[in-house]
Amino acid sequence: MCRTALSDGIKKKWIIDSFSYWELLRLSSESSEAGVKEISGYIFSSEHPHIVRNKYLEKLVPVYRKATEEEMGLCLGDWKYGSYFSTILTDTAKYLKWAEKKIHMSNVPIRHEKIRAFSEISGECDVIVNCTGLGSKFLCNDSSLTAIRGQVSKVEAPWIKHFFYGDYDTYIIPGFDNVTLGGCRQYESYDKKFSQYDYLSMRERCEKMLPSLRDAKLIGHRVGLRPHRIPVRVEMEEKIANGRKLKIVHNYGHGGYGVTTCPGTSINAVQLVRRALTEKSKL
Fold this sequence. Notes:
- This protein is an alpha+beta fold.
- The protein has helices spanning 8-26, 31-34, 92-105, 136-139, 196-209, 258-278; strands spanning 36-45, 64-66, 81-90, 127-130, 146-156, 163-166, 170-174, 179-182, 186-187, 217-241, 244-254.
């Protein structure tokens, strides 16, 4: 199992390929159904200038610039640094529903089944693509994979038109049907239960930035576990299972950057699958 650091070039290509994928989908007639649209907003910090910069996005998105003095006052806070940029928003609930529909339209069968080892399905395919997320911790015995717990709240606030990011993982993101308030990153926490403490903390931080959110009606909460791994595992593995050679292409460990990088890593994984189908086994 490879645990070496990824080159900056590979990460950059994943992000570029991902942005291109989302942008093409945004420009298509299916963008609304797929939950993809353009969005713009601000990131502020009172701590350090690097927090409001992103070396990958700055050269990729249509606009990424320093916030003006007037813009620094758009939301409350002792901000010293700020940036404005436009990017792409993906509503994952809408997108997954759309993606499943496209799969069905392509006559690809979907089977729901729990497996405990790749050997259970070794005789059913030429190559296995492993996208099991946190399940890979046990399926692959991968000790470098862990969970980062996250929790957000959904509110009704149609007057919010731009996203706002602040310090301490605080963010306000307007979506298609509601506004997301967040967030938290709790390393090695596998607790999927709602936390009232986290909710009150997030709500207080968001309302401090935008006091108008105090009038926002609560819709609900979401709790999830991000599959975090350094580096993200995108590679081919060969092993013996039930007396036959088994090729597995892994694609997991994206952490909190799944939407940002998953189309790019998937393109990478498809290249590995094609290679696996054409080259001779090394075992």
